[in-house]
Input
Amino acid sequence: MFFAAAPVVSAISLTASVGIVLIAYSAVNILYMIVLKKNAKEVEKLVSERKNVAEPAAAVEVEAEAE
Output
């Protein structure tokens, strides 16, 4: 009932809540990027290993189709 009686207070509290959530979300994204950049070499290594494992299987399928 308080929100219906005071629309200005309601709008301010809603804007403040959305702002706090947006700031928290942005901070988490920044921290995620810092961690990702710190571990980029490990991530690249894992991706390349996974790619190398998948390539021979694709090559075998192509060779089987050619025969």
